[in-house]
Amino acid sequence: MIYGRSLFHIVASLIIFHLSGATKKGTEKQTTSETQKSVQCGTWTKHAEGGIFTSPNYPSKYPPDRECIYIIEAAPRQCIELYFDEKYSIEPSWECKFDHIEVRDGPFGFSPIIGRFCGQQNPPVIKSSGRFLWIKFFADGELESMGFSARYNFTPDPDFKDLGVLKPLPACEFEMGGPEGIVESVQIMKEGKASASEAVDCKWYIRAPPRSKIYLRFLDYEMQNSNECKRNFVAVYDGSSSVGDLKAKFCSTVANDVMLRTGLGVIRMWADEGSRNSRFQMLFTSFQEPPCEGNTFFCHSNMCINNTLVCNGLQNCVYPWDENHCKDQTAS
Fold it and tell me: What are the CUB domain coordinates in residue numbering (predicted)?
């Protein structure tokens, strides 16, 4: 009887040891997949006729330790359809914890998730609700497979089906620079970029002097169709006009000031035919970080602005240090 109990204890110990080893191995892999720095890859694409993108080395096995971000952008008033080829294989795992494809409905990694996919069955057809899809392919350090090939094309946005055949958008771009300037929607009409009845997708490129950055402050802002971002918005980009450099996007009732980290800012205004009363006015100020040079003014907010902007009747600093005591200076 004692012998039987001892044998039972030995067998039970071996089973527990085996299970703990298996659990540890799985934990080690999960830890590795979450903490190990992966090689970055991917692309931002908006080819008008659609296109194809694949996992690295497809149809051969993809390499380990990869994180590829693909962002697809459609033209205004279009949506995206995404198809995965049947020749598809990604390491299977519970809830696709390890190698996987993640698709989100929008341009960001925090946009609403559509699905996470792995295994041998290719994902179903995916349709966006708007102009963007964000796709991430992740591979950890173990068990590589064939990967995927995906094809995308663009379709009319059903939210605009009542408008019938839409006219091509007019070309609408502006170049600005210097120590300060005003960016405003009325420039579209003043400079003949579009008529009052046309939809517009306009961009203002602001280039600061060398070694300078840009501070943007809204002076006026109102969207005719508030909270309808498909119909009207003002967006701010930091460094280029690609979606990866999107800093802020405003389509509600409030727009906040924006501090850029580069010397190239891009302001974009989209307004469809029924939103042309949307408007904005924005002051841009070029600045350098301290220590301030002799021809600059210290704003007390990590900004040095050109001396010519002091007491000019516009607040160029984050706080109105540049306009304080101006009456005293004039009186003296």
Answer: 41-155, 172-287
Residue identified by tokens 């796709």 is: 135
- pLDDT, tens digit, for every residue of 121-153? 999 999 999 989 999 999 998 888 999 999 999
6-26 per-position pLDDT tens digit = 433 433 443 333 333 333 334
Q: How far is residue 274's CA from residue 231's CA, in Å, rounded to a whole number?
A: 8
Residue with tokens 């080829």: 85
